[in-house]
Every structure is written in structure tokens, then in C-alpha cells.
Amino acid sequence: MKKTSLLSAMFGALxxxxxxxxxxxxxxxxxxxxxxxxxxxxxxxxxxxGDFGSDESIPPTFSPNGGANNTCAVSxxxxxxxxxxxxxETTRNLTTGGITVGTLTDQVWRNSAGTSCVYGAKIRLNNVxxxxxxxxxxxxxxxxxxxxxxxxxxxxxxxxxxxxxxAGQSDEVLFRAGxxxxxxxxxxxxxxxxxxxxxxxxxxxxxxxxxxxxNDPDGSSMRDSSWFYVKSGCTSATPTALTGxxxxxEMGQEGQAVRVISLPGYAPAGADAL
Length: 274
What we know:
The strands form four sheets. This protein has a six-stranded antiparallel β-sheet with strand order 1-9-15-7-6-5, with no helix packed on it. A six-stranded antiparallel β-sheet has the order 4-12-13-8-16-17, with no helix packed on it. It has one helix at residues 6-17; strands at residues 27-29, 34-36, 39-41, 43-45, 84-96, 99-111, 116-125, 141-148, 156-161, 164-166, 169-172, 176-178, 205-213, 224-225, 227-233, 241-251, 258-266. By secondary structure, the chain is mainly beta.
């Protein structure tokens, strides 16, 4: 993300605020995808004010009147939806090549009827060289977070919770999300919603596109992701971790290596990660 001046950021915020849809909350991901120019895409757009990592992100806003730039956004993680109670939480290490590059906090929230769950994931990256065998410091970058286990558990919907902590520290926003197993790196000029010929619909997987990096080579660094949520049908069974249900992908957006970290993740009872 190339740094922009404060004046430019403020101007951009005012411009976008005047045109953005005010659609806070969970967004359904239809199994048929979204109609876009040229065909169908698995992805819905959430907050593209940072142009997928090519410019400084403008955070979503929350106000009594709805705010702007807040598509897919919810204002709380406690709980992300009214009437849901947290039933599981685990923090898992993100390790590649023997180096722990960060952590992923995995949560499950469930409604009182035991029929609907919200699965949450949030990443924090470490100040660490992820590849000490290469000259310089290689900071791991998260371009996509994927979660499995949602086949035949629709309708599936997604949301994210963004937090700013002051002193220039904030989460990275969610750019887009879709029912697909194919992570697609975004470069300036690329289509914001890739066609299904590039990222086929897969109703078992949800892909979240972001740009998280402790020290981003393109100039703007957020070590924390937002909370990424998937809401789906579930049961009252005690949540258990499914092997390979979470994948964290570095997609080489600024010339980094292409790497995938696979780890266990909470999923609906009886789900698979195929």
C-alpha cells in the first residue's frame, strides 16, 4: 500500500462517503454467485477504499445514521450478532518454515436455539523474519484467509469487525469475500470481482481478501486483520477443530513468495475441508 498524504486521504474519504452504499451487516453469499460485467463472480465487495493494498485504506465508519464504506461491517465482536453467545475460542500459531510469523484467534458464537453459528478469525503478525535464509528481512504477508466446512449449511453470510486503537494503529479492512477455494491476488487494474473462470464457486469454502503485514514493502503496514466472520447453519454439538479448515495465504502481491499455512479451525459438526 503506497502512502498517501493526509490531505489526499481526507479528500478521498469525503468523496467516497458521498457515494458509498450504507450497508452495514452480514452479507449473504449465494451459491449461484454474483452477477458482474462479463459473467458471474463468487465474490462480494466489502471495503475497496484501499484498492486491495495499492493505496492507504480508509476505515469504515459507524454512526447512528449508518456511516459510509461499511458494507459487510459490524461494529462489535462482543457479540458480532445480537442473541449469540461465545462457545469456543482458541489461539493458534501461524508457522511457516519453522518460523512462527503470527497467531490466528479462532472463535465460535452460537444462537440460543443451537441452529446457527458465527465462526470468527483474527490474525496478528509478528515482527519476525519469515525466511532467514534469504537476504534482508522477509515479513510474511496475509492476502487471503480461507475457512472450510459450509457445504449444505447455507445460507452462508459474511461480515467483518474493524478496530482502530489510536496512534496510527488499526486493523486492515476486508476488501472482498466469496464462496471459493481459489485465492486470487489483486494487482492495480485487475477486476475487483474475479469471474468464476478464475475463482470457481465452491460452497464449502469462504475466502476473505485482505492485506496484513507487520512491515509491508509497499509502504503501509497493518499487523492486525479485522475479525472475519462466517455465519452458517450448525448444531448444538460442542465445537471441535477440523484439520485443514483454515488456510492463510501469502500471494506475492509485492513479489513475495507464494506460501500457504494450513491449520485446524472450528467448523460445523460433520463438515470436511475438501
